[in-house]
Amino acid sequence: MVHPPREQDRLDALRRLRILGSSPEPHLDAVCRIAADLFDVPMALVLLVDETQVWFKARFGVEGHGVEREGALCDLTIQGETDTVLVIPDLTDDPRSVQSALVLGPPHARFYAGVPLALESGLNLGTFCIMDRAPRSDFTAVQARQLQDLAVIAQAHLRLHEAHIAADADAARRRATEGALRDSEQRFRLLAETTTDVIIWSDLDTTRLYVSPAIRTVLGYEPEDLVGTKPLDFVHPDDVENFARVLGDLTGGRIDHASTCQRYRRKDGSWLFMDVCQSLARDPATGEPDGYVTSLRDITARKADERRIAHLALHDCLTDLPNRTLFWERLAEQAEAAGRNGTRVAVLTCDLDRFKQVNDTFGHPAGDHLLQVVAGRLRAAVRGTDTVARLGGDEFAILLGRIERADAATALARRIIASINRPIVFNGHRMSVGASIGIAVEAGNALDAMALYKRSDAALYQAKAAGRNTYRVHDPDSDAASAAAGLLKAEMERAMKRGGFLLNYQPIIDLATGGIAGFEALLRWRHPRRGNIAPSEFIPLAEQSGLIVPLGAWVLKEACRAAASWPDPLRVAVNVSAIQFQQTGMEETVLHALTASGLAPHRLELEITETMLMQKTETVCRAMESLRRLGVRIALDDFGTGYSSLSYLHQFSFDTIKIDRSFVAGMADQKTAAITRAIVALGTGFGARVIAEGVETEEHLAFVRAAGCTDVQGFLFDPPLPAPEITRLIESGRLRLAA
């Protein structure tokens, strides 16, 4: 924030006025109303600006009592000359104001004109301004002069207030001076002997002449024990140098007041943190220096609280291990030191195997207990100079600094795995977990802390891909291709746990009405390092590894939840893997998704492929029949690319048949066009709706419309969009609903 000239003087003057937070004054509100009428604007304000806030002293057309100073428009105005007008015709087109809270939020101002309000000293305390919710380019020089004239009224109020304050202050000083000689000593002793703080009166050479009785309670001494001593007596040796420097500034006349914190020795030998405030005292009659007044306050408990807060900010509250923030601080320090000294540093990242199973089986209290035990075992396995941190969940990291040999890290990994493998008992239950560990060891003159951690993390993926409960050392020359599938699988598991997958939705358009019939849910994976990963890359791996079952259940639940917020009868189409249908609980998975979301069964359409139907297992057939009875729609996806499509149409009843995009793309070929028309005829003949995928041009649309397709989807209409944008698309009315 750029401050106006003489900022501290300005703030001091504002404080002396004692006007912040004062009651509304009708004549200032009237000035605001006159300005609003004169300039035909909805808002006018008299504003005062302190260190962090802009206060509404008078207002018209604006609610509240003030806004934050950072980015405020009046902060710009008070930096100008007193007789200048700051005019911003369009606040959203000016870099100084585009981020202002008054522009981004209520009252959503677009035009501003303001004049500084100054005291006799020329210090700008605030502004008089008008605002409009629409930009204005017609604000004339005459209007600017009129705005200045109105500002003079508000400014006169401030200067009159300043004069009253000055007069009151002079009167108060006279009264104080007259009574000071009469009762100053009595008042001092009354204050000193009733307060819980220790009050000390010292001579100009800092010798203590008087010590209040509170010294007995605070430090355990009698007052006379400290009379005749000096300020540095009883101070902790480690604090003497700093305290002596401050004391020298005070006695040398460079400052009149000082506030410090240092430790004082109690009579029993213990140490307390004391807040020490010292002030130069002057003779009320002559104004000459007369001595020093010191107050001592015990802040030991506050210091302990501050240490606890600082500790909590850098440590995990469950295990008391360093957290991610402290781990990164120490890693950066160790990497810098290792680079400077040419020594080795190692990072071990550790994930617990089967931890989720413990949580699901025995509950979160058991999981918390397990994490605490594991934290203790990790601490016991390392040196006192090493760092064990909990990064979150069941993820830990170990930092080894100044190791002589690289194999020290692998030896530690073996000890950790053996230690964590030992059973853990909670409420009579034996819990067992394993540990997968990734190791990166580096030495040299240019260590990169972030790169070191990433290498350790990559090695962790390799350990998981190798079967878990083992460790791997990062090897930059290893064959990445051989481990790619295992790494991707481990990353998929992590993404499922952390919420790395999301759904986009592509509209399905009813050709007869031109409205939206529904949306197809499309799974997307935005990898934090690799960016978007195509479904063709991770779906086959998910099917091979069995991850498709929990991933598919999440897709169903999320798609139903999103669709439940859409207007009826919009439906959502979800692709279902053959692996999911082979699970005996497929019907329960679908029913749970519908029940949890409140979506009607007829608004859910499951898209299956011919590959799944070729299996024709009893489980698949039973699941399809059960879902049809429930009311769920069934669609045959990529029709025409399999081997026995016609037989499927006889054996199963489909609500929808989807033509593969390859037929639409190949429409110029006469044979492809003929096959497409035949597929449409078959589908509609069996009473199914026929959807053409991949419609990206007007030519595509004309072709599928002529072929007899009932619905289409493709980039010609809309790309796949996140759920919030689908909601906005529906609410915008740009695409109407199908009848």
Spans where pLDDT lies below 50 across 5 or more residues: none
Helix content: 40-55%
CATH homologous superfamily heading of the largest domain: EAL domain
Q: From the 3D coordinates, which CATH architecture of the largest domain would you assign? A: Alpha-Beta Barrel
Distance between the termini: 57 Å
Question: What is the number of helical segments per DSSP (H or I, 4+ residues)?
Answer: 26
| Computed Rg | 38 Å
Largest sheet: 8 strands, mixed, barrel
What would CATH call the class of the largest domain?
A: Alpha Beta
Q: State mean pLDDT (0 to 100 scale).
A: 85
Number of domains: 4
**What structural class do the secondary elements suggest?**
alpha+beta
TL;DR of this structure?
This protein is of the alpha+beta class and 739 residues long.
Question: Main attributes?
Answer:
739 residues; Beta-Lactamase; six-stranded antiparallel sheet
Structure in words:
It comes from Methylobacterium adhaesivum. It holds the Pfam family EAL. There is one protein chain. With 739 residues, this protein is of the alpha+beta class. It folds into 4 domains: 7-166, GAF domain (Beta-Lactamase, 2-Layer Sandwich), CATH 3.30.450.40; 195-304, 2-Layer Sandwich (Beta-Lactamase), CATH 3.30.450; 318-478, Reverse transcriptase/Diguanylate cyclase domain (Alpha-Beta Plaits); 498-732, TIM Barrel (Alpha-Beta Barrel), CATH 3.20.20. The chain has an 8-stranded mixed beta barrel with strand order 19-20-22-23-24-25-26-27. It has a 6-stranded antiparallel beta sheet with strand order 3-2-1-6-5-4. A 5-stranded antiparallel beta sheet has the order 8-7-11-10-9, with helices on both faces. The radius of gyration is 38 Å and the shape is flat.
